[in-house]
Amino acid sequence: MANTIKKIDLHIHTLPNEYLDADFEFDMATMKDYVAKNSFDAVAITNHNRFNKDQFLAILTECASLGCACLPGIEISLEGGHILVIGDADDESYAVLRSLSEKAEGEEHDDHYSMSAETLNSLIAGKNILLIPHYYGKTPSIPKSVVDRLSTGVHAGEAGNQKKFFLAKRSDGPTPVCFSDIRIKKGTTEPELFNYDKLTYVRIAGDITVSSLKTALADKTNVAVGKSFLDETFDILEGEAEASGGINVLIGERSSGKTYTLGRIYDSLGGADNPDVLYIRQFEIQREVGDIRKKLQSFATEMGKDYSAAFRDVLEYMDRVGIGEKEGRVSRFLESLKKHAESSKEDEYSKAALYSFSPDEVIRGASKTNGMRKHVEALIDAESPLSEVISKYLDRENLILLFKELLSIEKREEMDERIKSIAERIAKAVSDCLTTKSVSVPIEGINFPSLFQTRYVRKCFDKLVAGIKKKTIADDDIFGRFRRVTTVGPIPTKREIKTLLGIPQGTNVDYLYAESKTDAYLRVSAESPSQHATGELRWRYFLNVDCQVKNSHGADLSGGQSAEYCLLDKLWNHRKYQYVLIDELEPSFDNPFLNGQIVPLLHEIAESATVFVSTHNNNLGVSLRPDQYMFHRVEDTPIGTQYRVFYGPASGKALHDASGEELPLSEVLITTMEAGEAAYNERRNRYENHED
User: What number is the average pLDDT over the span 605-616?
Assistant: First the structure.
C-alpha cells in the first residue's frame, strides 16, 4: 500500500519581487538540496505577484527526478494581506497564473500594490485553483472579511509557526498549514535548508494534485506538523526527533549533548537572525549579574527614548531654527551696514533688484500632507482584528484612492519646494555675481521676521527646560518579588552626568547649569560627542532618566536576587517570542525560586510559545510537568562516540529514538533527576524520618 503521509511545502520563492523582496539569485542546486534533504513529496513555487513558466518547468523537471511533485503558483498581494494561488502543472493553470502575474505586474509600482478580491475572483472563476491566505498569525494576514468575499472559497489558512498551527487546529477557522516561505538562493547554509517548524504533513492517498489537496484539507485531522501525527508535536533535529509545541525538557548526564541539541534547534529556527527566538545560554545569567547597573542604565536609556520623544521633537525643531547661525548674522549685518554707509558708492550693479538678495528663511515642520498620508497608510495596513473594525466604517477601496491622492499632493508640494529652491539658488548666484562686479560694499542679508522668531524660540526653550524641577515616575513594573522604577527629572550632579554620558571628569560642564538653557543647547550641539550631538542621546543633557530595582522589602538586591531579577527580566516580555530556549538555570538559583516563580512562569509562556529547557534539577525536570522529554545519552562504540536522543510524551511510559529503541521513562527520570533509585529512596526515607 502506498504511503499516505505526504510532506509538503507549498510556499517557496525562486524570483525576487523588486518591491517586496531583498534581491537574491536563484540557484537550482540549492533547490534540489532543499527538496532532497527534507524528503518532500510535493512543493509549490509561489513568487510575489510573479509567475515565470520557463523557470517553473525547469524546476518541475528537477523535482520529478527526485520523486517530488511540483505545483505552479503565485503569492498575490490581496487587500492588505497575501494569498497563495496554486494550480496543477497544466496549461489551464499556467494561463490563470500568467493572467494574475500580468495584472499585478502592470499595476504594481511600489510596495503598496493590492489586488481586490473581486479582481481575483474574476481571474480564477471556474478554474481548479487552491487558495491559501496568510491567516493564523502569518503576516501580512488576510482579514476574515476579505476571505469571506472570495467566491472560490478558501481551502486552508497559512499559520505563522507551529504554535499558531496547534491553536488553529482547535479553532473553527479553515484548516491550518505551515510552510517555509523560503528564498532559494546561492549561499544558503545547511541549517537554513531545514524548516522543521514550518512544514506540513498531509494524509493523501495517491498523487498530490490540487483536487487531492482540497479533499485532504477539508478535514483538519488530515494535517500535522510532525510525521507521527501526534497531537501538538513537530519534527526537529533534521527529522531525528519530535518536540511538543508546549514545554520540552532535555535531560541527561553532563556532556551528553543537551547544549549541542539546543544549539541545533536554535540554528534551525534562524538563530540570531530570528527575533522571535529567546535563547538563554548556560551561565549567561551569572555573567549579567556583574553588569546589572549597566543593564539598568541601558533600560533607562531605552525608556528615555520613548519618554523623551516630544522633547526630542523640540530639539529637532531647534536644529531647523538654527539659532546660533542666525544670531551670528546680526553682527555681520550691522558691520556690513556700517561699511556700506561709509562707502556711499553706488553703481548700476548695486542698483539691481537682486543685488542684496537674501533667500526666505522659513522654519518648516513636518509636512501635514505627509503626516495625513501616513495615518491613512496605517489604516490600510492594519492587521486583523483592527482591519475588520476599520472596514465596518471605512471602505478599503476609498482609503486606497485617498492614499494615492494624498501621495500625489505630497509629490506636488515637494516639486514646488524644489522649484522654489532652484529659483532661490539662481537668484543668489546672480546676487553674488552683481556683488563681485560692484564697487559698492554689499549689505549682509538678514531676515528680521525669522530673527524675531528665533528669539521667541530661545525664550520658550529656556522656560521649558527650567520647568523640569522634580522627579516623576515614568515606569513602574513588578517582577515577581521585585519592583523596577524608572524616573525622569532634571539633570543630575556634574559628576553623575559625566559618568552617565562618558565625559572625562576633568571636563568643565558648568554651562549645563547656567541660566540660559539655549546657550547650553548650542554648546552641546557644537562640542558634545557625536552620538549626542546628532540628537540620538542629546536629550540626556537636559533630562535625567534613572532606573532602580528593589526587593519586596524596598532594599537593594543581593547577588542572588540580582540573578533572579536578570532572569525574570529576560522572561517577562515572553509574548514577543515564539520560541524560548533555556540551558541549565540551576547553578544560579535555589529550588524555592525555581519552583515558586519560574515553573508557573514557564507554563504561562508555553501558552503562546514553544519552550525547550535543559536541566539537571528535578524542579524543572519533573515538577515542571513538561509535555515532552528528550533524554540524551552518550555511548562509546567501535566506530567512535555516538550521541543519541530518546524522546516521547511525559504522559507516556517510554521514550524512543529514531530507530525505535525504547527506554522506560520512570527509569530515565529516577536515574537523571534523582541520582538513581537507591539515592532517591534514601532521601525519601530521610524526609519520612524527619516527619516522624
Answer: 92
pLDDT tens-digit map of 291-318:
788 888 888 888 888 888 888 888 888 8
Average pLDDT of the residues of the chain = 86
Q: Domain for residue 19, yes or no?
A: yes
Are 359 and 469 contained in the same domain? no
Mapped onto helix, strand or coil, the DSSP state of residue 139 is coil
Asked if residue 663 lies in contact with residue 646, where contact means CB atoms within 8 angstroms, the answer is: yes
Residue labelled with grid coordinates 525664550: 459
For residue 430, with 0-12 CB atoms within 10 Å meaning exposed, 13-18 middle and 19 or more buried, which class applies? middle
Q: What is the pLDDT of residue 116?
A: 93
User: Is there a contact between 6 and 202 (Cβ–Cβ < 8 Å)?
Assistant: yes
**497 and 590 together in one domain:** no
Q: What is the pTM of this model?
A: 0.70
Q: What is the distance between the alpha carbons of residues 120 and 154, in angstroms, rounded to a whole number?
A: 13
Pair 237, 645: CB distance under 8 Å: yes
Peptide bond into 140 cis (omega under 30): yes
Q: How confident is the model at residue 215 (pLDDT cuts 50, 70, 90)?
A: very high
Tell me: do 263 and 154 sit in the same domain.
no
CA distances from 17 to 58, 104, 626 (A): 20, 11, 43
Per the structure, the count of domains in the chain is: 4
Residue 426 has which C-alpha cell? 539662481
Residue range of the domain that includes 684: 247-276+577-691
Cα 44 off chain centre by: 27
Residue 655 belongs to some domain of the structure: yes
What is the rounded CA–CA span in Å between residue 338 and residue 67?
92
The cell numbers describing 47, all together, are: 513568487
Q: Tell me: do 671 and 607 sit in the same domain.
A: yes
How confident is the model over 481-516, as pLDDT tens digits? 889 998 888 887 888 777 776 777 787 878 878 778
Are residues 58 and 173 located together in one domain of the fold?
yes
Residue that is last in its domain, among 537, 559, 574: 574
Poorest-pLDDT segment among 29-33, 313-317, 576-580, 685-689: 685-689
Among 410, 440, 470, residue at a domain's last position: 440
Establish whether the linkage from the previous residue to 385 is cis, with ω within 30° of 0. Answer: yes
Do 672 and 631 meet the contact criterion of CB atoms below 8 Å apart? Answer: yes
Concatenated DSSP letters for 310-376?
A: HHHHHHHHHHHHTHHHHHHHHHHHHHHHHHHHHH----TTTTSTTTT---------S-HHHHHHHHH
Higher-confidence residue of 303 and 579: namely: 579
Which of these, 80, 6, 25, 13, lies nearest to 50 by C-alpha position?
Answer: 13
Q: Which residues contact 96 (CB under 8 A, 6 or more apart)?
A: 85, 87, 123, 124, 127, 129
DSSP 406-422: HHHHHHHHHHHHHHHHH
Residue 82 belongs to a domain with what CATH number? 3.20.20.140
Give dist(CA 426, CA 544) in Å, integer: 47
Q: At 432, which amino acid appears?
A: D
Residues 595 and 564 in one domain: no
